[in-house]
Amino acid sequence: MLQQRGTELKSRKSILSYLRRNYILYLFLAPAVILTVIFKYVPMYGAIIAFKDFSPRRGILGSAWVGFEHFERFLSSPNFYDILMNTLKLSAYGLILGFPVPIVLALMLNLIRSAKLKKNIQLIVYAPNFISVVVVAGMLFVFLSPTGVVNALITTFTGKPVSFMSDPAYFRTVYILSGIWQTAGWSSIIYVATLAGVDPQLHDAATIDGASLLKRIRHIDLPALRPVMAVLFILAAGGIMSIGYEKAFLMQTALNTPTSEIIATYVYKVGLQAGDYAYSTAIGLFNSVINVILLVFVNTVVKRLNEGEGLY
C-alpha cells in the first residue's frame, strides 16, 4: 500500500514538473481549446430541442418533452426516401469521382521539372478554390443557360439547347463536376507536399533498373501517398452526409427539385424559412448520427485493408 502511494506521488510530481517546464506551450494551446469548447461543445446543449416541442417564448428548459416524435415525423414523411437518396447519391458520386482527381493532379505536378512552370500551373489550379460559392453558382447559370456559351456550341451541332440548370437529370453532373473543378487543385496540396518528401534517389535507382514511369508511380509514389490517402478518404467518407446547403440551394430551381432537394436544403427551409426549429434540429441530429456511424464503419474497413493504419 505504501509503495503504491509512493508511486502515485512520484507520478503526480513528474506531471507537475512537466507542466511547469512546458506551461508556455499550453498557454499557446489554450485559445484554440477555449474557442473549440465555446463554439463546438457549448452549442451541443441546443440539440435538446430535437426532443422537445420547442417554443422560443418558453425557451429550451420550459418547452415540453416530446421524445422521438420529430424523428418519427421525419422518417415517416413522404419525401424522406427521396431526400435521403439525393443526399447519399450526391455525396457518394462526388466522393467516387472527385477523390482520385487531386491524387492524379499531384502526381502530374510532381513530374514537372521546371520550378517556374510548376508554380504557374499550381496557381491556375488553386485559384478556383478562392472563388465564392455564390459566384460559382452564378457562373453556372450564365454559362449553362439556354443562351449561354456552352449551349451556343451544343446548338451549333445539335440544333437545340440543353436545359442543364432546370432538368433534374443534369443537376448531379453539373454539381459534382463544378465541385471537382473548384476543389481539386486545393485538395492536391497535401499530396504534393507528401510527394516532395520522397527521396529522389529512389526514382533514380528505379530508372537505372529500367522501371517505367507507371511502375515508378505504382511502387514509389503511391506507397508514399497511401497513409495520407487513407486518412483523407476516411474523413471524406465519414462526412458523406454533410453536404453544405449553400451550393445545392443556390443551384436549386423549381424544376430540378426532385434531385436537388437534400437534407441540408430541407433543414434550411424547414428551420429558418418555416420556423420549425425542433423538427429541423431533429433532422440535423439524425444526419450527424449517420455521419458518425459511417465514420466508424469506413475507418474499420480501411484499417483492415490498409495493414491496421486508419484514423484512430
Care to describe what's here?
The protein is mostly helical and 312 residues long. It is built from 17 helices and 2 strands. Strands 1-2 form a two-stranded antiparallel sheet. α11 (189-196) crosses α13 and α16 runs antiparallel to α17 (277-305). The mean pLDDT is 86.
State the gist of this model:
The chain is 73% helix and 1% strand.
Based on the model shown, name its key terms.
312 residues; mainly alpha
Estimated share of beta-strand residues: under 5%
Radius of gyration: 26 Å
Shape: flat
Give the number of helices. 17
Unreliable runs: none
Order of helices and strands: HHEHEHHHHHHHHHHHHHH
Mean pLDDT: 86
Give the total of beta strands. 2
What is the first-to-last residue Cα distance? 36 Å
**Widest sheet: strand ordering:** 1-2
Largest sheet: 2 strands, antiparallel
Structural class: mainly alpha
Quaternary state of this entry equals single chain
Q: Helix coverage percent of residues?
A: over 70%
